[in-house]
């Protein structure tokens, strides 16, 4: 696949927007990235069964870089619960590997598109209603954390997200302060991304029909350009969050997510 200037500009714009919105609204860039990458890949003649898989895998790969940038800022403020990161990480790695090396490889791209569309629709509803779980219990023991981590890693691997959509509500439910939960979730993004990306690369090595500029399911040009741009704009979004009406913006953004969810459902159902 030729890397044309137009493609670089498109990917750069996507990286700038996803990074800024992730910082501003506290959402994972994958919800925006995956539909657009799916469209870009399909426009460049990649097989319909591979476009969604490559988009999800590439989205996850960018999280390796953005999570490092995010967690450094949170750690400086002492907001990360490293004891929870240590407790959840083993389950996260296990769940991620099962998803990325097993289920992800076996599922058809159409089924993944439908699952992603439903996930984005659910996330948009949560964002629109600004729902937060009521704290009702304490952090579970080792077995409970491993089980929770496995669920977070597994679902993240299927949708190409950093896990915040499950880990933040889970920690808030366990009486962890919301700002601490968000900071800890950013730290969890790194093991989630690393384990899933390893699985996407290994499971994609034997797949035929992937573009020449892909490593496994990872679309390398998109990873490089988006990661470079989003790392710079995410802190700007986080800074803007203090001066903009975030609650109102979340409702507007939820409507955009509904449109992206419809597109992914259409891609899945029409394949």
Task: Describe the protein's architecture and organization.
The chain is mainly alpha-helical and 271 residues long. The chain has one domain (5-270). 78% of the residues lie in helices and 1% in strands. The protein contains ten helices and two strands, in the order H-H-H-H-H-H-H-H-E-E-H-H. It has helices at residues 5-25, 30-43, 48-76, 82-106, 109-129, 142-159, 164-173, 178-204, 220-240, 246-270, and strands at residues 214-215, 218-219. Strands 1-2 form a two-stranded antiparallel sheet. Strand 1 and strand 2 form a beta hairpin. Helix 3 (48-76) crosses helix 9 (220-240). The radius of gyration is 17 Å and the shape is globular. The model has no long low-confidence stretch (mean pLDDT 87).
Write the topology of this structure.
Elements: H1 5-25, H2 30-43, H3 48-76, H4 82-106, H5 109-129, H6 142-159, H7 164-173, H8 178-204, E1 214-215, E2 218-219, H9 220-240, H10 246-270
Antiparallel strand pairs: 1-2
Helix pairs in contact: 1-9, 2-3, 3-5, 3-8, 3-9, 4-6, 4-8, 5-10, 7-8
